[in-house]
């Protein structure tokens, strides 16, 4: 048992609404001149530095701000290949329809285990170097029994938040046998993948010929639930559609994208706010030249929201939560406080985790330090790499 007290924290964003008696979408639980004691990977004490208890080690952070480690609740970092040309084409006006996923599937299948593992390790390190302490990782670029199971085995080496996404698209070899592919996903593929997965996800999107219909998606989610997996949905990305309705109906933990929402979708999400989080992915709107959803409207309606990167080779090859935060404030009408809470406590809620996303005694010691005196600098200094994960024992900040 060894403990470290972090002092010199000019501003501590705990995200603990109880500290200011408010709700989770507005209240940062902010302390000035604070200290945090970490013991064996967990938070042992949080409070004013003047009252800090003794500890085995002391790290002076020199007037920096500390925020909860970012919870990136949506990523697809197990892939090989490059689709930068597709990005460039979109910037000239070509629409995204999911067709490019096939190129990533071919490259991923062709990669060796070692190559894939090395690429995932590099991407997770890149996330961590920008302040992310929890990452959810999906499969979805293998789309065979072996390649999906392999993707999840690799992902499970980096996170406990692994998601089986065999229902990402119908692979080209099954293009005229869709129902056979759904049978494979809900049968042999699910059996091979479930041991490595906590969640199941489906790309439910009537506006893409490659993705799954509402009925197909319901079959996939039901089979996943029967196999003991939690439910997540990619929905309402390319146009209005059934994704939100289905996610709410099935009690999914999260429906992700929510780019196109009707007033009825917003009402359903608000009514389901304890169960289903709307996970917004503004890096995708950025990288696909799509309209940004109005996140403020969702919060005002009582919807629970999260912000995540969706880091993937097609619609957003950025692993940066600070970039996502800046977009959310500038393009989705959130305040900096609302955006930061959505990328921390919001992400934790979408993963149904109570031990992360908030700096509170008993939680995991997932802390992100900023080379700045206030969390506002995450937005004010957009594009400047000021956020990094705080490792007890790392002397950088002293
Ligand atoms: O979350 N929408 C589906 N899946 C990914 C993109 C996959 C790709 O284009 O490679 C997404 O946007
Ligand atoms: Fe995604």
The CATH homologous superfamily of the largest domain is termed Metal-dependent hydrolases
Proportion in β-strands: 15-25%
Coarse morphology? globular
User: In which order are the strands of the major sheet placed?
Assistant: 7-8-9-10-11-12-13
Ligand inventory reads: N-(iminomethyl)-L-glutamic acid, fe (iii) ion
Total DSSP helices: 15
CATH topology of the largest domain: TIM Barrel
Low-confidence stretches: none
CATH class category name of the largest domain = Alpha Beta
Total number of strands: 15
SSE pattern, N- to C-terminal: EHEEEEHHHEEHEHEHEHEHEHHEHHHEHE
Helical fraction: 25-40%
CATH architecture of the largest domain: Alpha-Beta Barrel
Radius of gyration: 21 Å
pLDDT averaged over residues: 96
Q: How many domains would you count in the coordinates?
A: 2
- Structural category is alpha/beta
- Biggest beta-sheet profile: 7 strands, parallel
| Distance between the ends | 23 Å
